[in-house]
Design a protein that fits this description.
The protein has six helices and no strands. It is an all-alpha fold. Helix 1 packs antiparallel against helix 3, helix 3 crosses helix 4 and helix 4 runs antiparallel to helix 5. The longest helix has 30 residues. The protein is elongated, with a radius of gyration of 19 Å. The two termini are about 30 Å apart.
């Protein structure tokens, strides 16, 4: 069904909160970073050491496919789709252990770990914000029947 055929509920008819836009931008940023990392791994796999070719190609394809989750979530958040908050939250929760592992490395990965941790925590805070949940039309536990009264 198109958007013209499905009218928006009253809660989502208003303007999109700035926090929701920021959360969508952070999810899209993570998705783009995954795409860039995946493409880089693919290029390295095809042009680099032949012993690691299969691992690099598999890892690159995996990263590109994983990038779909935050990119679709970002698109859904911008369109005020209530389903999009779940994938966005899952993406942030999965990013936290990755950030932790980057922070444990003794290399140039530490700044990347710090940046990823900051982005993930910030996006989580924005996604669970009451203004965001209200704009997406998400009702809290025990409030599913409030709209029927």
């Amino acid at each position: 069904m198109t958007r013209e055929q499905t009218p928006a509920p009253e809660e989502t008819a208003g303007p999109r909160p700035r926090r929701l836009t920021y959360a969508a931008a952070l999810a899209a940023l993570e998705g783009l970073a995954l795409v860039v990392g995946g493409v880089w791994m693919l290029v390295e796999g095809f042009t680099g050491d032949p012993d690691d070719r299969q691992t690099a190609v598999t890892g690159g394809i995996t990263l590109v496919v994983l990038a779909l989750l935050p990119l679709l979530a970002a698109r859904g958040l911008l369109a005020l789709r209530s389903w999009s908050r779940g994938p966005a939250v899952i993406t942030q929760i999965l990013a936290l252990p990755v950030a932790y592992n980057l922070l444990q490395a003794d290399s140039m990965a530490i700044p990347a770990g710090i940046a990823l941790a900051v982005v993930a925590v910030t996006a989580l805070v924005l996604l669970v914000n009451p203004a965001t949940t209200q704009a997406l039309g998400i009702k809290g536990p025990g409030r599913a029947q409030d709209g029927e009264r």
